[in-house]
Design brief:
Largest sheet of chain B: 5 strands, mixed
Largest interface: A-B, 33 and 37 residues
Number of domains of chain A: 2
Largest sheet of chain A: 5 strands, mixed
Distance between the termini of chain B: 31 Å
CATH topology of the largest domain in chain B: Pyruvate Kinase, Chain: A, domain 1
Radius of gyration of chain B: 28 Å
Shape of chain A: elongated
Strand content of chain A: 35-45%
Number of domains of chain B: 2
Distance between the termini of chain A: 40 Å
CATH class of the largest domain in chain B: Alpha Beta
CATH architecture of the largest domain in chain A: Sandwich
Oligomer: heterodimer
Number of helices of chain A: 2
Strand content of chain B: 5-15%
CATH topology of the largest domain in chain A: ATP Synthase, domain 1
Radius of gyration of chain A: 17 Å
Number of strands of chain A: 10
Order of helices and strands of chain A: EEEEEEEEEEHH
Structural class of chain B: alpha/beta
């Protein structure tokens, strides 16, 4: 039996992490779930939260993921996320700045689709701050 | 024989053109590397997304699926999204994309469909406005962006999805150019809404059985908007790489042509010069003989 499995965390612009792990805990839509080697095939939606990877029963790396999908098959876990980053890279002030930036942009534009877009972005930044602060 | 001064001016002007084209070639070459890496790093996400969508669609009962996945009964309103570059001087890059799009638009119009065109990148509008100016609903320039990031693509996809919700169209296609290599780009046509193309085989591709969390339908509903955004994002990146590749090749050709032109002009110039010297000598000699 395999002791570990391959895990990839992919964002549209880059592959954040790729490697063998003992366990990965993913914040699923209906609650966190741990993936161990030889897990059954699974496709799950992700809610905003922190994803932890384990090596030798210790947390190896933690990533924040905002949304996306996790797929497990053939002893390989792939997590696709539009917004994902290492929790160590989190800087509260950056997100506070970006919220006021988006607020400003939102008030400038009159296009409906852009207003919705900026609202989504503000909500995203707020959620990130709430979870990680 | 042409005037010597005229020839000299011609040579000088071709030489400065050659300098410009060779500089542009170098710049495009440098940018190509970066754009190519970006385009290639977006591919795993796109491919994986497609696998998940294929998997889910083959497991979902299609009769109850929402319209955004299986399509509507009457497909009268079409949205054509044409992604091109903002700048020219890149050979046949934009022409290839717009040519493919024009064919599609003509076909749709001939079968009495209503077509709306959304241009991403200024060149698309430039190429299409003569024939289809009334159909263009908007043109989004790329050059305002510091960098083509996912946010830009998300903004465009948001706009498209909102239009879909307001029932402004039933089917959306994107046109872009797939980057194969610096000398080869292929204009592509892809349907993004609805997810399933007419007559597409949705039977199970592999035997893998998945657990879904939440239900399949729910997962699928959320997959679609993300898929639209990522398709546009990857189209933009493929285009950016293709544009630089096409420009590099075009400028390489232009530099070579300029070189050839300079050679032939120089030959012409030297011949004229010698002819003039000979003529002057003959005049001197015949003048001396006459004395």
């Amino acid at each position: 039996m395999d002791k570990n499995f391959l895990f990839d965390l992919i964002t549209p612009s880059k592959n954040l992490i790729s490697g063998d792990f003992d366990m990965v805990v993913v914040p699923g839509e209906e609650g966190d779930f741990g993936i161990l080697p030889n897990h059954s095939n699974l496709i799950s939606q992700i809610r905003p939260g922190v994803l932890n990877t384990y090596k030798n029963n210790k947390i190896d790396k933690s990533f924040f993921i905002y949304s996306g999908f996790a797929e497990f098959s053939n002893n390989q876990l792939i997590v696709l996320s539009e917004t994902a980053f290492d929790v160590n890279d989190f800087k509260l002030n950056n997100y506070k700045d970006s919220i006021s930036e988006y607020e400003k942009l939102k008030n400038q534009t009159k296009v409906e689709s852009e207003i919705i877009f900026f609202e989504k972005k503000i909500e995203e930044a707020n959620t990130i701050i709430e979870i990680l602060k | 024989m042409a005037n010597l001064k005229e020839l000299r001016d011609r040579i000088n002007s071709v030489q400065s053109t050659k300098k410009i084209t060779s500089a542009m070639k170098l710049v495009a070459g440098a940018r190509l590397k970066k754009a190519q890496t970006e385009a290639e790093s977006s591919r795993p996400y796109v491919n994986k997304m497609q696998t998940i969508i294929d998997n889910v669609t083959s497991n979902v009962n299609m009769e109850n699926a929402p319209a955004i996945i299986k399509g509507k009964e009457n497909n009268k309103n079409h949205l054509i999204i044409i992604m091109t570059s903002d700048r020219g001087l890149c050979g046949g890059f934009n022409t290839a994309i717009t040519k493919l799009a024009k064919n599609k638009i003509k076909n749709l119009l001939n079968s009495n469909k209503i077509v709306k065109i959304l241009c991403v990148g200024k060149k698309g509008q430039d190429h299409l406005k003569r024939e289809f100016n009334d159909l263009i609903i908007d043109s989004i320039p790329i050059s305002g962006q510091k960098k083509i990031d996912y946010e830009f693509a998300a903004k465009i996809s948001n706009k498209i999805l909102l239009m879909y919700e307001n029932e402004e169209f039933d089917i959306a296609h994107i046109f872009f150019s797939l980057f194969k290599s610096a000398i080869k780009q292929e204009a592509q046509l892809k349907q993004i809404i609805p997810v399933l193309e007419d007559g597409q085989d949705i039977s199970k591709k592999d035997d893998a059985i998945y657990d879904y969390e939440p239900e399949e339908e729910e997962v699928l509903k959320n997959l679609v908007p993300q898929n639209v955004a990522i398709q546009i994002f990857s189209g933009l990146l493929e285009n950016a790489a293709g544009e630089q590749g096409a420009r590099m090749t075009a400028m390489d050709n232009a530099t070579r042509n300029a070189g050839e032109l300079i050679d032939s002009l120089t030959l012409n110039y030297n011949r004229s010069r010698q002819a003039q010297i000979t003529k002057e000598l003959i005049e001197v000699i015949s003048g001396a003989e006459a004395v």
